[in-house]
Amino acid sequence: MAHVNEDAAHSPRIVVAPDKFKGSLDAAHVCAAVAAGIREIAPNARIASVPIADGGDGTVAAALAAGYVSKSETVTGPVGTPVEAEYALLGDTAVIEMATASGLALLSRDGLDALGATSRGTGELIKAALDAGARTLVLGIGGSATTDAGAGMLEALGVRIVTGDGSPVPPGGGGLAQAGRVDLTGLDSRLTDTEIVLATDVNNPLTGPDGAAAVYGPQKGADPHDVALLDDSLERFAGLVDAAAADRPGAGAAGGMGYAAMTVLGATMRQGVDVVLELVGFAEKFDGADLLVTGEGKLDRQTLSGKAPAGAAAFARDRGVPVVAVCGANELGDDDLAGASIRAVYSLVDVEPDLDVCLAEPTRLLTELGRRIAREQLRA
């Protein structure tokens, strides 16, 4: 069992930096519960609570916890119904989650529209951030309901996408089957002087067997016929904008939002967790740390592929700081954990085997895990 160094044992500095426990508890409440348990056993511990995310759901919340200001805007939802979407603003930097405006979670299973879902609301949210003075945009693009190559987003920002006779194309990826011309002359001129960072861990191309429609279309309601139609539509759209860019890693992220953002808006794609760690000032808060407590609802193979706990653990590893993780359940073996520099895992199911109780009472159980971490890792 790894422990903090003896010199810090009297007043250890602990960074508690988990992602959310999806469907159960947001990252800020995970931090609070774990910290409360640690303090019960080690009252002198100096604890920095830093909610983090991987660029998807929870990214705005992490920014708000770090001091950003909440802003909201009524925008067009993925199937045209208005939704209230939140973003975060600090100075001239805005943090936007595509999911809040154009997300899958906004729709019921019966309300999915694989062919017609639009990313227009995300473009409207970007416009609102520009109106508020933002000139650096961090765009987290996980959890989208759309497969429209970001066309709706572009239209909200002034781009015209029309049929052969000059009529506007219908919304959604299905509408792109009728696209005959893309006119970029009306694109919001403020974007020329705006830095846009895509926060994502998706590297799929826009089209083909590994593309946006084939890989992610089914979870958005697309049947095999829809997938084929969407893939053809995305290829058609790319042929009107920049065909070669369809193969760029990340072009297929968020139903092709990655493609539109990189080719038309000049966005730079970066690993989501790295962007979030910078946003929340993680390096400064980590200074002098003796132990990192990270985690998420489930530790599994996806955790190792650029998710928040893996990114935070890598950060700590590079600074020689031991890492433990909290989670609801752990599916990783010892070799996987060692490769991710996670020394020990504390799972809710170790305290309470009943999954229903874990989902219903995560705060109580996480507080108990905090106590266990303090006893075992701090020599308390």
Task: Give a verbal description of the structure.
This protein is an alpha/beta fold. It has two domains: 6-52 and 280-377, Glycerate kinase, domain 1 (Rossmann fold); 59-273, Glycerate kinase, domain 2 (Alpha-Beta Complex). The protein is built from 16 helices and 13 strands. The strands form three sheets. A six-stranded mixed sheet has the order 3-4-5-6-9-10, with helices on both faces. α1 crosses α16. It is elongated, with a radius of gyration of 22 Å. The two termini are 14 Å apart. The model has no long low-confidence stretch (mean pLDDT 94).
Keywords:
elongated, six-stranded mixed sheet, Glycerate kinase, Glycerate kinase, domain 2, 380 residues, Rossmann fold, transferase, glycerate kinase activity, alpha/beta, five-stranded parallel sheet, kinase, Glycerate_kinase, 18% strand
